[in-house]
Amino acid sequence: MEGSHSGHCNSLESCASQGVHGFESHPLRIEYKLSGESRDLKRFREFKSHLLRCQVTNIMYLKKIINIILVILFVVALPGIGAFYYLSKKQVAPAVSPNMFARLESFIEQSAQQIADPLYGVALPEAKNTPTVKNSVPDEKTKTTLETPTKSAAVKNDFSCGATQDFNCYEKYYRALVKNESVAAAFADLKARYTTPYVKAMCHPLTHIIGQAATDKYSDVSQAYIHGDSFCWSGYYHGVLEGVAFKMGKAKLVASLNDICVNVPGKEKYSFDYYNCVHGLGHGLMAMTDDELFDSLKFCDTLSGSWNQQSCYGGVFMENVIVDNKNHFTKYLKPSEPLYPCSAVEDRYKGTCYLMQTSYMLKVTNEDFGRVFELCSQVGNPFSTMCYQSLGRDASGRSVSNVQATKNNCDFGKTYDQRSNCIMGAVRDFISYYHSDVEAQQLCAAVDADLQNVCTLTATSYYKTFQ
Fold this sequence. Notes:
mainly alpha
């Protein structure tokens, strides 16, 4: 009774049977619990140790499997990856094509008349009776000189630019050569250096410099033209107009815009020299306005006649691209917006702009013709048509008018409209480049059957402008 009353008992069993309060905290119960927990803990530790050994073994096997897989991939896949890398690098064209300015000059000159008269040079059974615009590609004698500079051309010993690609160094050198000797001496030196990759790529802008320097000797445009040379796609004549613009000043230049080319022969028949003068005005206006493209276009509008205006626009848009390739900044080209500034100018300028823009579009898309076709499709007709034809010029120009390569480039077009206009632009470029229709007919024979007729008709009508 005393034990029961006091709440104590002598054993776990008696405490449990009596239902004594405090059973769970009884010293014997705690000892019993600890004894059981010790046995469980020991078993758990043994199980955990066994499990850990199994996991280590599994990891070792897994590592062996992974190593085997990596060896297989290295042996089998690496050669294929290397081949793909080599081929992908091999197919990438240079960002700046040495032929770009030649193609643009020829194409824009012919296109000035085409924009003023949309049927000019288009694939028709009978060529439209339009004024003949002399092609901007030099005659055969000059063309031979362009492609293979004369061996007699002497390289000056005082050339200090070395292997540098500093345009400013070349500019100072050729300005001094014109000043101290002559325009002819500067061209002789340039032709002798034409095999140098940098000189070949920058040849057209360098001839601009020679033309600018010539205006220090010949104040009249017609006199400066007499001493000129069409080497590297007539950049000299454009440079003359830039030099004249600097000397006249902005106000006088704008006031006299319609009179500057008046003494250059061939206005009535849209001669090559006259085209170069009016086209050069666009270059001069850009130089005079610090490359303000929109202001320069407005000044071109003051010229009389649509042909003159379009030729001037071409000079403005071309100078915008040249500035970019001379490693100077232009705010009117945006890599993130390949269609700019064509997308921003008024409609009357868009045609000439898109005839220029595809060369830049290819540059910023890593020569992706398919992507540029897609971009051209976004501009809407009639400008998408001009964009496709301009891309055809580049398809020819990027391959130096190789038949199969040109065809392959135009085949990136997804629709008949894209491919046919690309071929039209390409076949015109073939004729401009070779000053013949022989290679153009070879291109027409190589294209798909659905494109052969439009190619042949374009070649026939366009070649008549050279006869």
